UniProtKB/TrEMBL annotation:
Domain G-protein coupled receptors family 1 profile: residue ranges: 45-318
Any Gene Ontology CC annotation: plasma membrane
CDD domains: 7tmA_Vasopressin_Oxytocin
Name the record gives this protein: Vasopressin V1a receptor-like isoform X1
Organism for this UniProt entry: Dinoponera quadriceps
Membrane topology annotation: Multi-pass membrane protein
Amino acid sequence: MSDDLNSTSSPPSASEQTPVDGRNEDLAKWEIALLTSIFLITLIGNTLVLLALYARKRRQRRKFSRMYFFILHLCIADLLTGLFDVLPQLAWDITFRFQGGAVLCKLIKFGQPFGIYLSSYILTVAAVDRYYAICHPFSYCSVTSRRSKMMVYVVWLLAVVLCVPQVFIFSYQEISPNVWDCWATFNVKYGERSYVTWYSVTQFLLPFIVLVYTYTRICITIWTSNKMSGVVDLRKGNKASFSQRNRDPFISKALINTVKQTIIVVILYIVTSTPFIGCQLWATWDPGAATSPFHTEAAFTILCLLNSLTSCINPWIYFAFNRELRSALTNLFFKRKDYSPAYDAVAQQNASDAASTTSSFISRISRLASSKIFG
């Protein structure tokens, strides 16, 4: 990332208003190495997930369940982040000054935040979907899979709309004599502060509020469910009895595993996005940020680069929590004849429910909601 732009995505920082022809070559080498690593891991990881999803769908010959539908679109969003955000920024760091001309400048600045917006809102939609599946199973049963898919398609459209301001803010201009670059221009007083704040709210704060609320409620519901089913006995302070341990929990283990996977993805998203958003807000709102030593140090630049880190780690989380994806990918590459797709854990749980006479009506309703996620 060049010294003129302090983020790998769209919002400009205060330093963009003061062109500097020189740069720290040692820091630039570290930036190029880091961006190259992030891009390659993102490309390889998300491509493997897409191949695994393709192999699974071809083997089972059925449509994606809600869980895999969300994973598919999150994977595509992460891949777009690598291609539209990390890769152009890597090329920009190598050349130092933007070499693509006026049209490519606007196209790249339009595409850089697209994958990040898309990933944030797909995570939000997935969180809302799981919230209703666990906390409101009765109403969730009446919600069709088509409605959840429509929400994802709306998110795609919303991400496009939110990227449009980039086209008007950035342009290819002469920042100093005979030095041209893709630069941000704000003709309105406090325009930069307003835009950076708007980006921070729409890309991070609003999804963050929804994610924290939904998964807090989900964790409380799961804890309460397990306590009621005899998995946890707080009053006695010891393990549940044999009869208690064999009582069916209200929330299926498969759904809990999916929630754990998503919570880890969400935590990673928060951990990697918070430093970037914090640095941008500080650089924009603090009048003394441009002259602060921290603003020109390597730590500031590296923290801004970490915004793309989640895109290269997400696919490995999917593989770690999903045995079926690992099996499908192994079969695709090694052509195992003895391979048979792993049954969904929820299907196995429902089979045991059919033979169980102790399962409650609420438990059955909850598993019905769970099955809508897993297909």
